Amino acid sequence: MAGRKTPQIAAAPAVASSVTSVPAPVVDSGIATERPTLSSGVSEFFVRGKRPVVNYGAAVAGLSKLHFVDAKAGVDQWVSYVHVAPFTETGTDVSWEAAQVLEGGEANLNTDPVKGTHFYELPAGALRSTNYEAWAKTLKTWLYQTVCLELRACPSLKRVAAAGESEGDFRARLG
């Protein structure tokens, strides 16, 4: 009863040109008290933690806006995402496969950290501004290959649920 629609990236997703410091588990070693300095041209955002003391660790945020179109099914939907990808163990690349969607999207990205917080050291890859262009390209490829819009469908009635329509609402509309 569900159909998958692959995004058409007609309008390219926003590049992964932001280092996002996300709340990280407290660890005794590797924490610096000073806020790390990034290369010019790299935006920095912070995700607020729910604990009173926050230690920020680096990750890469991929901001994207995907367009899903299927004329036959009557689908024409734009969806915005913020994927937060961790750095690989080497610290020189990011893993979009391990990325998580940030709940609340861009609304949960702040330009200032919580006062009195500590920062983990930045991985080597975060210090090179040229890496962000490469990560943006891999983000686009990864989005196209993995992100789909799930839609409920009733083939016998040739009906497809609207994007975001609940199963109950769709069933009621079919009835």
Average pLDDT works out at: 77
Q: Compute the number of strand runs.
A: 10
Alpha-beta content class: alpha+beta
How far apart are the first and last residues' alpha carbons, in Å? 15 Å
Low-confidence stretches: 1-29
Helix content: 10-25%
Q: Output the helix-strand order.
A: EEEEEEEEHEEH
Provide tags for this entry.
single chain, alpha+beta, seven-stranded mixed sheet, 2 helices, 10 strands, 14% helix
Please tell me about this protein's structure.
The protein is of the alpha+beta class and 175 residues long. The protein contains two helices and ten strands. Strands 2, 3, 4, 5, 6, 7 and 8 form a seven-stranded mixed beta sheet that branches. The longest helix is centred in the C-terminal third of the chain and has 17 residues, at 130-146. The chain is elongated, with a radius of gyration of 19 Å. The two termini are 15 Å apart.
